[in-house]
Amino acid sequence: MSDFTFPPPPPASLPVLDRDTRFPVNRIFCVGRNYAAHAAEMGSEVDREAPFYFIKSAQAVAQSGDVLPYPPGTQDLHHEIEMVVAIGAPGFRVAKADALSLVWGYGSGLDMTRRDIQAKAKAKQRPWDLSKNFEGSAVLSPLVAASGPLGDRRISLTVNGEQRQEAPLSDMVWTVEELIADLSQYYHLQPGDLIMTGTPAGVSAVGPGDVLEGGVEGLPPVQLTLGNPE
């Protein structure tokens, strides 16, 4: 006999490259303004005292290759390509020197953003949740197990084959080690947590019929096709 009033939904998960197992998704921490050029194109400055974050729920996860309907409530949907860090060990108040020991693997992701809703929220100094955390707003590639730091690889995105975003990972204001160490001062990081590490410049609007493809070189790519609104 079930202890639940109704069957709970299955956990969100991601495929793992060259393995039969899947990676269960817990929380998704997203880093804001982690590329100075992107902050500038949005009319903002980077706060170099500390990173800042917003959170997407596991219900926001979509799989690479999905066809997703254009989301409701927006007329200005933007793409943001990001490197994804998958946490595989618990950690609290972790030193920067030990931070990479928490990393299970890496992937690529799209932080889809209802930009018009975000702009209204910014103007009224309100939270960004409605613009960032919605079904299908975290489109994620398969993960690959870590074999060491990624180094200075490039991250890029095309829309319908046209280059929109490209930058080296060294352009990130806050490194993976710094992000993990900082987050662990405020959260007990757990296996299954993901960190979307911010997007480079070149974000722009997309619409029904557009095909988005991108990722970090050497990692599984992420791909999304936008369908018509529901």
TrEMBL record:
Output one GO MF annotation. Answer: metal ion binding
Q: Which InterPro entries does the record cross-reference, listed alphabetically? A: Fumarylacetoacetase-like_C, Fumarylacetoacetase_C_sf
Mind listing the UniProt keywords for this protein, alphabetically? Hydrolase, Metal-binding
Q: Which domain of life is it from?
A: Bacteria
Q: What residues does the Fumarylacetoacetase-like C-terminal domain cover?
A: 28-223
Q: What is this protein called?
A: FAA hydrolase family protein
Q: What is the lineage of its organism?
A: Bacteria, Pseudomonadati, Pseudomonadota, Alphaproteobacteria, Rhodobacterales
